[in-house]
Structure of Enoyl-CoA delta isomerase 1, mitochondrial:
Amino acid sequence: MALVAGMRVGSRVLFRPWAWLPGAALGRKESAARGRVGARGFGSQRVLVEPDPAAGIAVMKLKSPPVNSLSLELLTEFVISLEKLENDKTFRGIILTSDCPGVFSAGLDLMEMCGKNPAHYAEYWKAVQELWLRLYLSNLVLIAAINGACPAGGCLISLTCDYRVLADNPKYVIGLNETLLGIVAPFWFKDTLVNTIGHRTSERALQLGILFPPAEALQVGMVDKVVPEDQVQSTALSVMAQWLSIPDHARQLTKNMMRKATADRLVKQRDSDIQNFVGFISRDSIQKSLQVYLGKLRQKKG
Ligand SMILES: CCCCC/C=C\C/C=C\C=C\CC(=O)SCCNC(=O)CCNC(=O)[C@H](O)C(C)(C)COP(=O)(O)OP(=O)(O)OC[C@H]1O[C@@H](n2cnc3c(N)ncnc32)[C@H](O)[C@@H]1OP(=O)(O)O
């Protein structure tokens, strides 16, 4: 069975994020997802969407306490909310931020990658791929208002955005720190980073698993602006206004031209990428590394 839940329409692949949900009622979910968003807020348990139709934008807040780790549920709700906004012509941009104090996102949920079976790992990885593809190729302007720590998968999400504003707090570090966990960032995480900060800086950042504090993140180009914490949202809004002053069709075609080759690399090998992940994460040595890392996270408190 093909692992990729998508269908081809002309040259475009439409992904159906719920198609891999266990027991998903496709028709009902599909029609709900295609409804107009309107002026009232919508969202789900873990993704809050505050639409401003007059401005053509929506603020999307991740709210999966305590740390917005990217569980299968959060990934699913995230993709569904994104698709709703993508399908509603009212919306031209999204500001992506966190509703969890001090953390943008702790990255992939370690509990999804520990002690589970291969079928679960495959389902989980497919959901991670899906979110990345959706975000990376989004026609909307995506601005990350990073109001907290932003490691690993959290950083990846911010890197898919068109612009990153980071709050100036030394605790709000950002980077792909996978090697510190004894794991390896997949090629498409690496590609996304290289496209943002260049090859040499990525090589050093990835091998050392560097989590950059705000001033350094700005210096290497991991973020575009660092502002006082209480100005993150307003800065994101004014940056959005600038991006929305560009005609959509020209901006969208340009974005696609810049990003398509990178996305296509994953699209062409989604299944083998899933198999690689499942094989890698199922290794005893990797499971042990993740357990040790989780133990350290828990010990930190006590
Ligand atoms: C060669 C082939 C290659 C193929 C590819 C193969 C593999 C690639 C595989 C994976 C790629 C993974 C990318 C990732 O995203 S891995 C996740 C990395 N994330 C981190 O390192 C962040 C860890 N967390 C933190 O540093 C802190 O929690 C944080 C700074 C975010 C917040 O600190 P704070 O002090 O506020 O909160 P804590 O007390 O630390 O945490 C509260 C609570 O949450 C739990 N937790 C934290 N992070 C995670 C997580 N990512 N997943 C699950 N759970 C998490 C933490 O353990 C605490 O739990 P508890 O003690 O209250 O039970």
Remarks:
- The pocket of LCMDX3IU is lined by residues 66-67, 69, 102-103, 106-111, 149, 151-153, 177-178, 181, 183-184, 186, 276-277, 280-281, 294, 297-298, 300-301 (CB under 6 Å).
- The domain at 42-300 is CATH 3.90.226.10 (2-enoyl-CoA Hydratase; Chain A, domain 1).
- The chain has one domain: 42-300.
